[in-house]
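Structure first, sequence second, as always.
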């Protein structure tokens, strides 16, 4: 009986997920082919993707209502995993983000994202709750605690993803406009306070350089010694990504032929700057294709949310769509230097087992929701 539900799954969205994962394999291979120290990343990513897709297919079988009953244990486990980094995780590149195990590592911040989505969906599934003071305060605390723990690792990029998710889910739950404005104001105020209290010096420097670069002209970049010094120091990573993106033009240099990639100018190109590799080697067309696939995926998840009257399932789909869409856009914006430089993988494309598994499981859970039609007798979900 469980296997009958597979006939109701939206396999087109699953195909879109697979296509994004396969494109990721192509560009991860291109980004690492000239780096002997990273030569194993392509094979590992293929294994991560295959295992993630297999587990995702298994997640389609049990009813998604079981996940609702596990919402708070999963949330506590995610927060505990973030707290445990301070005790058990080694310092890598100045940050404590990974538990290192034989042959691979685990990044708890990636699994905290779906855990927060599930917890918020369970919390906001009663319509009346979203219109009360504690109905906004408690969700902000639920999203804010892991966001703060992730920021302290430090991992600014991943911490930013929690706020679009919170805002989208509160909106879908029926929060009033003034409540949404409060959430936005708290997010802006929190960012300002974090700049002065939590940010490390290098993070402040990245923000300062980002503001400065809008006033630079071509003459400054080519001839001003101060600007040149900044571009070879604090502005090096975003500048090289911008050069790669701009150099790709309309159709790019070809897979594996991008000079910023091949000659090792572009740092962290298999992870935090993979979209810059896409832009350099396939140009505007390749970038448009990748963003189009993400748009199809996000809109498909939102379409499932619109068709689902059971509120937990609806909110779950909205949260996953906001998470994946926001993370993909932030990654692309970082590569185009439209926002300050911050490390954040592009879902399904960038190298990383934790990020790939979390994204695939989130999508599979939404497809699980879409494959089932739960009877709801209230006017709009649970009143």
């Amino acid at each position: 009986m469980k296997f009958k539900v597979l006939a109701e799954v939206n396999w087109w969205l699953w195909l879109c997920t697979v296509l994004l994962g396969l494109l990721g394999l192509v560009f991860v291979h291109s980004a690492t082919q000239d780096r002997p120290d990273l030569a194993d990343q392509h094979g590992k990513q293929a294994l991560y993707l295959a295992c993630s897709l297999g587990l995702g297919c298994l997640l389609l079988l049990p009813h998604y209502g079981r996940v609702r009953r596990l919402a708070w244990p999963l949330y506590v486990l995610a927060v505990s995993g973030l707290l445990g980094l301070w005790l058990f995780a080694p310092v890598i590149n100045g940050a404590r983000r990974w538990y290192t195990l034989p042959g691979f590592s685990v990044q708890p911040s990636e699994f905290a994202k779906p855990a927060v989505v599930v917890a918020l969906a369970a919390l906001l599934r009663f319509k009346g709750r979203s219109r009360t003071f504690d109905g906004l305060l408690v969700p902000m605390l639920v999203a804010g605690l892991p966001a703060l723990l992730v920021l302290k690792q430090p991992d600014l990029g991943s911490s930013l993803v929690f706020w679009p998710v919170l805002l989208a889910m509160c909106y879908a739950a029926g929060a009033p406009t003034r409540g949404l404005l409060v959430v936005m104001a708290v997010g802006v105020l929190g960012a300002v306070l974090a700049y002065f209290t939590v940010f490390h010096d290098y993070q402040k420097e990245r923000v300062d350089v980002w503001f400065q670069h809008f006033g630079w002209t071509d003459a400054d970049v080519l001839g001003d010694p101060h600007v040149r010094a900044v571009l070879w120091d604090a502005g090096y990573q975003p500048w090289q990504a911008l050069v790669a993106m701009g150099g790709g033009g309309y159709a790019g240099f070809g897979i594996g032929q991008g000079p910023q990639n091949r000659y090792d100018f572009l740092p962290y190109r298999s992870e935090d700057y993979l979209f810059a590799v896409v832009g350099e080697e396939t140009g505007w067309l390749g970038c448009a294709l990748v963003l189009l696939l993400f748009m199809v995926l996000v809109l498909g998840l939102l379409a499932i949310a619109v068709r689902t009257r059971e509120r937990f399932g609806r909110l779950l789909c909205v949260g996953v769509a906001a998470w994946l869409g926001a993370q993909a856009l932030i990654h692309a914006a970082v590569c185009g230097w439209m926002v300050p430089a911050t490390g954040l993988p592009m879902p399904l494309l960038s190298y990383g087992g934790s990020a790939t598994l979390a994204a695939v499981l989130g999508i599979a859970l939404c497809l699980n929701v879409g494959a089932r039609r739960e009877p709801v007798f209230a006017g709009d979900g649970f009143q």
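Margin note: Residues 61 and 221 are 56 Å apart (CA to CA).
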